[in-house]
Design a protein that fits this description.
It contains eight helices and seven strands; from the N terminus they run αβααβββαβααββαα. By secondary structure, it is an alpha/beta fold. The two termini are about 20 Å apart. The structure holds iron/sulfur cluster.
Length: about 210
């Protein structure tokens, strides 16, 4: 796992800002509203299993929401990303839109995390890398019974063009951390986020990253 002390220190600074309100008396309000860190998530070429695992932190979601505010995410249905502290990326890159969204996340997030096997190495979708994408599309759309009307490969200009291969995200942008698993468990995601949000370099022990 990539470890970046400077990123961890950034969050330590934000945490101390958040707790530095000046007590002026029982009636007074803090001069500074504690700043919650902004967290964005997205699913590229993934199955949403990693997002399901994020929800698997269960009641700890409430503790997470004390520390962070969700920005763009399938959980909020916000479609565009603003300036964020942390971006969690599920899934690899299988089409042009995935690449565009990933670059947008990189440009807006201080820390970018590849969550799960698909983001880290392409995962299951990368099994199609053995095949010719054009031939595969013809096989799926033109040669199967019950195929699309007219048996044509969909060519609406709004559809993103598929890439010849499925790529892991680090081949296109810099990634700060890699959180392995398919999916990483809720406990692993929680341990990772609590370390990061507390300004510590995330460290997952063997118990959270063994899969047998
Ligand atoms: Fe789904 Fe596994 Fe890929 Fe996560 S890593 S998106 S759970 S296939």
């Amino acid at each position: 796992m990539n470890t970046s002390a400077s990123n961890a220190e950034n969050f330590a600074d934000a945490s101390s800002d958040a707790s530095s309100g000046t007590a002026l008396g029982a009636e007074a309000k803090p001069l500074h509203t504690p700043r919650k860190l902004k967290l964005a998530t997205v699913s590229l070429a993934g199955c949403f299993g990693c997002h399901m695992s994020l929800l698997d932190i269960d009641e700890r979601l409430l503790a997470l929401l004390e520390l962070v505010e969700f920005d763009r995410s399938p959980l909020t249905d916000i479609k565009t990303i603003g300036r964020c502290d942390i971006g969690l990326i599920e899934g690899g890159l299988c089409n042009a839109e995935n690449v565009e969204v990933l670059r947008d996340f990189r440009a807006h997030c201080k820390v970018l995390v590849a969550v799960g096997a698909c983001a880290i190495n392409g995962g299951l979708p990368a099994q199609r890398n053995q095949l010719d994408v054009g031939q595969m599309m013809r096989d799926v759309y033109c040669r199967q019974e019950g195929g699309s009307p007219g048996n044509q490969i969909p060519n609406d200009p709004e559809l993103p063009l598929p890439l010849n291969n499925v790529h892991p995200i680090h081949e296109v942008v810099h990634v700060d951390y890699f959180l392995p698993g398919c999916p990483p468990s809720g406990d692993a995601i929680w341990a990772f986020l609590t370390d990061l949000l507390a300004g510590r370099t995330p460290h997952l022990g063997h118990g959270l990253i063994h899969y047998d």
